[in-house]
Specification:
Strand order of the largest sheet: 3-2-6-7-8
Mean pLDDT: 90
Distance between the termini: 12 Å
Number of strands: 10
Number of helices: 4
CATH topology: Rossmann fold
Bound molecules: inosinic acid, magnesium ion
Strand content: 25-35%
Oligomer: single chain
Length: about 170
């Protein structure tokens, strides 16, 4: 079972509220598309959109680069035929659970550029400090964390533990 609580649910909720306020100010009077990266961003996206006072649209993409606790180096699932029409000319805010090597989000940003989004920004709940392999900058970051494997609040290990309310560290096997 998961181990030590890293970020308890009340801290997550408070930080998500702050991010919602910042996004409300940034996108004031505009209509951004909040694009959640499934499945990890499930709860973060749901909570975040309810903390913004904006006329947002919500959509999702499914992407995955992890197998177990290791980044596979491949980004799977970038099937974006539906996305093409949705993002053209739009201000898109990518919402993801965690920025780690940067592969997932750089692949997605590239795809959104191809589909002619007018503006592309990134909001992540967590950013791992040391793990970047591809330079990707998140415009909004909930928490910066050490390079440990975490689960909960949407983050999983092979599909498990997403539903935990707190973010917890899994001890290295
Ligand atoms: P990146 O492509 O290496 O930046 O990986 C980002 C994706 O890997 C995230 O969307 C997560 O799904 C997954 N990931 C990276 N680190 C963790 C972790 O500590 N716990 C759970 N999932 C993680
Ligand atoms: Mg993910």
């Amino acid at each position: 079972m998961p181990g030590r609580v890293l970020i308890p649910q009340d801290q997550i909720a408070a930080r998500v509220r702050e991010l919602g306020g910042e996004l409300t100010r940034h996108y004031a009077d505009r209509r951004p598309l909040f694009l959640g990266v499934m499945n990890g961003a499930l709860f973060f996206l749901a909570d975040l959109v309810r903390e913004v006072e904006l006329d947002v649209e919500i959509s999702c993409v499914r992407l995955a680069s992890y197998v177990g606790r290791q980044s596979s180096g491949l980004v799977r699932g970038l099937d974006d035929s539906d996305l093409r029409e949705a993002v053209r000319g739009r201000e898109v805010l990518i919402v993801d659970d965690i920025l780690d090597t940067g592969r997932t989000l750089s692949a997605l940003v590239g795809s959104l550029h191809e589909h002619k989004a007018s503006d592309i920004r990134i909001c992540v709940l967590l950013e791992k400090e040391s793990a970047r392999e591809i330079p990707v900058r998140a415009h909004w970051v909930g928490f910066r964390v050490a390079d440990e494997f975490v689960v909960g609040y949407g983050l999983d290990e092979d599909g498990r533990h997403r539903q935990l309310r707190d973010i917890q560290i899994i001890e290295k096997a």
